[in-house]
Amino acid sequence: MFEYQSANGGTSGGDRTPILKFSAKDGSFILADRENVDGQWTTRETELEMPTKVVMDMAEIEQGWMAFKPAPDFVMVKNNQPRPERPDEVDANGQPLYKWGFRVRLGNKEMGLRELSSSSKNVYERMKSIALQFEAGKAENAGKVPVVTIDGTERVTQTLSDGQTQTWRVPKWSVTGWVDRPDLLDGGQESVPEVPVAPAVEAPTSASAAGSDDYF
After folding, report:
1. Which residue, of 29, 78, 90, 181, is most buried by count of CB atoms within 10 Å of its CB?
2. How crowded is residue 23: how many other Cβ atoms within 10 Å of its Cβ?
3. What's the rounded Cα separation, in Å, for the pair 137 and 133?
4. Would the CA dihedral through 152, 109, 116, 23 be positive or negative?
5. Are 89 and 97 in contact (CB under 8 A)?
6. Does the pLDDT at position 210 exceed 50?
7. How far is CA 40 from CA 14, 34, 43, in A?
8. How many Cα atoms within 13 Å fall on the side-chain side of residue 113?
9. How many Cβ atoms are within 10 Å of 59's Cβ, its own excluded?
10. Amino acid 124: pLDDT
């Protein structure tokens, strides 16, 4: 089945996996690092420069329900596991507090190991494209992990039910290579190896993907 997992994990502020945040409003990737200053934990944020390459642990990616109250809480499962039930908590407007999203580990030798999560539907759709490329290439790359090149972001426009439009930004990324799984993804200090230039794996269309629309 599944486990309920809190982002804090019952540990102190310095024990959490450092975060890579993405803003769907302005398209920024932010490195969030916890620092202990005079006995108090604070967060130092640095914008990630583009383009960049990361190894992404797609074999261990999780999906499920996310909420920020204000600390993030997760009810997550790995792919092909039963869908978790949505917690019944609501916000001040009576809307469900938990939203569907994903959580994945990634990193490179500059940023180290990071955790990226999002409940943005637009970002989720872009993660689907990475998942499809991963599925298309994993058989030929047994024991390896995909290298994802993040070129930047691009704008998407949505038309709402009332006819108004909203504009967001989404990651512009793709699988551009494969490398042996580095210790980095398991919490080690080994540097990520240099990535050879390789063409992106052509992904099958989402229509051909198995499973419901809520799963990769």
Report:
1. 29
2. 16
3. 6
4. negative
5. yes
6. no
7. 10, 10, 10
8. 16
9. 14
10. 94
Residues 80, 133: Cα–Cα separation, whole Å = 17
Residue 164: helix, strand or coil by DSSP?
coil
Indicate the pLDDT class of residue 94, thresholds 50, 70 and 90. Answer: very high
Question: Which residue is it, tokens 């990475």?
Answer: 130
pLDDT in tens, 139-172: 999 999 999 999 999 998 888 778 888 888 999 9
Closest to 174 in 3D by CA, of 64, 79, 59, 52: 52
Contact (CB, 8 A) for 55 and 192: yes
3 state DSSP class of 48: coil
- Is the bond into 51 cis (omega within 30 degrees of 0)? yes
Q: Helix, strand or coil for residue 196?
A: coil
Q: Which amino acid, 147?
A: V
Q: How far apart are CA 2 and CA 137, in angstroms?
A: 28
Higher pLDDT, 7 or 146: 146
Percent of the chain with pLDDT over 70: 80
Q: Which one-letter DSSP state was computed for residue 139?
A: G
Q: Which tokens in the block code for residue 19?
A: 């975060």
Q: Model-level pTM greater than 0.70?
A: yes
In the chain, what's the furthest Cα-to-Cα distance? 54
Q: So where are the chain's domains?
A: 3-207
